[in-house]
Amino acid sequence: MAEAGPGGGGGTRYRGAFHPDTWEEELEAIPMFMKRCPAEIDAARQPELACLQSLLFDEEQGPAELARMYKNEGNEYFRERDYRRAVVAYTEGLKKKCEDPELNAVLHTNRGAAQFYLGNYRSALNDAVQAKKLKPTHLKAVIRGALCHMELKNFSEAIAWCEEGLRIDSKEKKLVEMRAKADKLKRAEERDARKAKVMKKKEQCQKEILLAAIKERNIKLVLEPSNEEEEVSGGLAEISLDGFHSDNATGAKVHLDADGNLNWPVLFLYPEHEQTDFIAAFHENSRFIDHLMVMFAELPPWDLERKYLPSNLELYFEDEERTEMYELNAEHTLLQVLQHERYFVKAGTPTVLAFVKRSPFSKKYFSGKKVHRL
Amino acid sequence: MLETPGMAAKEKEEAAAAAELAELLSPAAGQAAREGAAEAALALSGDAAGRRLLVGQPAAMAALLELAAGPSPPAARHALGCLVNLSAEPAAREPLLAALPALLGLLPGGPACGVLANLCRERGAARRVLRGLREGGPGLEPLLQALGQPRPPSQLGPLLCNLSQLPEGRRGLLDRSRCSVQRLLPFTQYQDSVVHRRGVVGALRNCCFEYEDHEWLLSEEVDILPFLLLPLAGPEEFPEDEMERLPVDLQYLPQDKQREEEPDIRKMLLEAIMLLTATKAGRHTVREKGTYLILRELHRWEREPAVLAACEKLIQVLIGDEPGPGMENLLEVNIPEEVEQQLQSLDREEEEEQERWRREQEERGSTPRSEEPSR
Q: Entry's PANTHER family (chain A) (predicted)?
């Protein structure tokens, strides 16, 4: 035998000796001293390991023995938190279809646990169910199943599984606690359902009041074709708020204020410059001229010719059905305009067109249409 | 009652007939005869006189007990029914208790619960039954688990209530290492059986005497308060800010919500909540969970004087000032002699008033309270 001298280095080395610099890695390569099993075994580079593996998983052994091997392998991976490989190992064990229901129950339970930690709650639940079928008194399977139901928010089933487990061991702390938690969450869920029902009813009620107010004022609505179906109570069925708000990008809706007045979202169009203005809540009793004063207090940037003064504007609405234009009296209120016999509110948003008085553009716009002036 | 010669003869006749019946019940008589005899015994036990006759025949009692546990279902049913009726007779107590192991073996069957419930109205018997359950092994666990059945026996509630009149009975129901009292809670709203519901509420009320467990009972691990309040709550809508203060189970109740119909059960629920307000911490929790809101609405709706009184008392506690130092736990306060006497005479007056009211109820034809255990 060679000896390394106290000064290190030099000296003859025996065959198969470790190199002083890489001895740790070389030690790691020997199966007996491995701290961690390599994920893949390459038979060419690690012949000893491959040899051992084939010994362990020799098909000549009975299925129960093999299943047990796979179970142990799975457990190893599980301990190292390599849940994916654990699942693979347990699956292999189950594939052996050994005749031992207890062992299979354990394989299912353990695989279920691994699946659980991978977040595959449905698969985990399946495994728990299988395990319970094979061995109904396997408490770990019952606990796992209950935990899965909790994650899947099936609180009633979670409680039922806890009860089953408590029949096996009435003092199992995890089950007692889980049952209390599941019960609490279930009752919260029930409350949420009740609340949703009440809120929906309230909303429905308010919609009906709104529709009644609109109808009372003899304001006519035009429906947007819409794919949604909304339930409306029988009496007001001919007018629905279906598609009422679809065009309104801001989501502003007509609403009743505390004094019982309607406030509408109103769109002002300026066809000459392809511009728009949007008033989110136009009180039905306020006049157009008052709004124009505010809107055009400063001339808009697109008004290069500086013509859009409130006194210089004419307001119209278009009767699309007959392609006729009607001039509005700017000193009228919104309500008066909406009640015009040819005015139809489209998509829940009244629209008004503004032109500069006697402008060439407006002449062109009106050509071919019947215009009703004031 | 003057005895006439005719009566003495009649009694002798009846006793002889009863002895004959006892013989027909005995194992020697053969199955068909026993079945018939059991049916006859059941019919006989329908009235007090018949019951006394049967109790006077120890052999009959023993035979009935044997039939109850026996293999023939029709005979067992008749025998059990007869035993349930007999168990209401004080004279039957000893013979039945002597056969306690056999009776316990029949649990959690409905009739067995009925027999034991009647027996346990008396404290001494209750003590023996509890000991028997403990020595037999599982204690109250099989009874608690029976609550989880789709249709628990209606006598289970009264049995648990009567067992809870003893501290050891309450200990069993308040076992924190198990799911114990939690199993009782859903039954405060149980519609299928008034008897069962009354028993459960009674048991819960008795449990509330254990003030060391109040914090646990009011905590999320048990959460007893909503279950006591739910039967007292009606369909009234609360504004949103009040609604959000209530426990989750009491929020957004549907418009067809009914209150508990039985006044005595309403009273017991109020008493249970009152007990929970004995400690300062308990008062704080009960107040904080919006109990006053429910009681306010109950007070508007309530018509029965006894229940109104209990409701008012509880509202006083909730909205009144905190008691002074040294009085934090109202169950532990030392009451001076004269005050004690005053309170007792007030209590007597109140009881008399309630007796009057109860008698009025009976005359009007409503069912009298049964199986109210002594506290």
A: TETRATRICOPEPTIDE REPEAT PROTEIN 4
Q: Could you tell me the CATH number of the domain that includes residue A274?
A: 3.10.20.90
Do A235 and A163 sit in the same domain of this protein? Answer: no
Distance CA B206, CA B161 (A): 8
- Number of separate domains in chain A: 2
Contacts with B252 from chain A: Cβ below 8 Å: 191, 194-195, 197-198
Name which of A179, A180, A191 is nearest B249 (Cβ-Cβ).
A191
Examine the domain organization and report whether A253 and A147 are in the same domain: no
Q: What is the CATH number of the domain that holds A173?
A: 1.25.40.10
Q: Do A241 and A230 form a contact (C-beta atoms < 8 A)? A: yes
Please check whether residues A140 and A239 belong to one and the same domain: no
Find, in chain B, the residue whose alpha carbon is nearest to that of A187: B249
Task: Name the burial class of residue A88, with classes exposed (0-12), middle (13-18) and buried (19+) by CB atoms within 10 angstroms of its CB.
Answer: middle
Q: Does A179 touch chain B (CB under 8 A)?
A: yes
Of A167, A185, A203, which residue sits at a domain end? A185
Check whether A287 has a pLDDT greater than 50.
Answer: yes
How many angstroms from the chain centroid is the CA of residue B343?
27
Q: Quote the CA–CA distance of B59 and B76 in Å, as a whole number.
A: 17
Helix axes A101-117, A63-79, angle to 10 degrees: 20
> Residues of chain B whose C-beta is under 8 A from some C-beta in A?
141, 145, 148, 177-179, 182, 220-223, 226, 248-249, 251-254
Q: CB distance A187–B248 less than 8 Å?
A: yes
Would you tell me the crossing angle of helices B110-119 and B123-136 to the nearest 10 degrees?
130
On whether residue A357 sits in a domain, the answer given is yes
Is residue A14 in some structural domain? no
Whether omega before B108 lies within 30 degrees of 0, making that bond cis, reads yes
A337/A253 same-domain check: yes
Extract the tokens encoding A278: 């949007």
The reply to whether ipTM tops 0.90 is: no
A254 in a domain, yes or no?
yes
Are B61 and B53 in contact by the 8 Å Cβ rule? The answer is: no
The whole-angstrom separation of Cα B147 and Cα B186 is: 10
Q: Which helix (DSSP H) or strand (DSSP E) does residue B32 occupy?
A: helix B31-44
Residue A361, beta-bridge partner list:
none
Distance (Å, whole) CA B250 – CA A274: 56
* Residue of B190, B143, B193, B207 lying closest to B371 (CA atoms): B193
Cβ contact (<8 Å) for B182 and A173?
Answer: no
Q: Above 70 in pLDDT, residue B361?
A: no
For residues A22 and A40, give the distance between their C-alpha atoms in angstroms, rounded to a whole number.
22
H or E stretch at A221: strand A220-222
Gap between the Cα atoms of A92 and A90, Å rounded? 5
Q: Are residues A277 and A366 in the same domain?
A: yes
Q: Higher-confidence residue: A319 or A78?
A: A78
Model confidence pLDDT, tens digit, residues B178-187? 999 999 999 9
Domain range enclosing A166: 57-185
Give a yes or no: residue A39 inside a domain.
no
Same domain? For A171 and A235 the reply is: no
How confident is the model over B210-267, as pLDDT tens digits? 999 999 999 999 999 999 999 999 999 999 899 999 999 999 999 999 999 999 999 9
A194 chain-B contacts, CB cut-off 8 A = 251-254
Q: Which of A322, A324, A321 is nearest to A346 (CA)?
A: A321
Cβ pair B179:A179 closer than 8 A: yes
Over 80: is that where the pLDDT of A191 sits? yes
Strands (E), chain B: none
Statement to judge: residues A246 and A177 lie in one domain: no
Report the candidate in B228, B178, B179 with the shortest Cα–Cα distance to residue B203. B228
Considering the domain architecture, whether residues A180 and A115 belong to the same structural domain is answered as yes
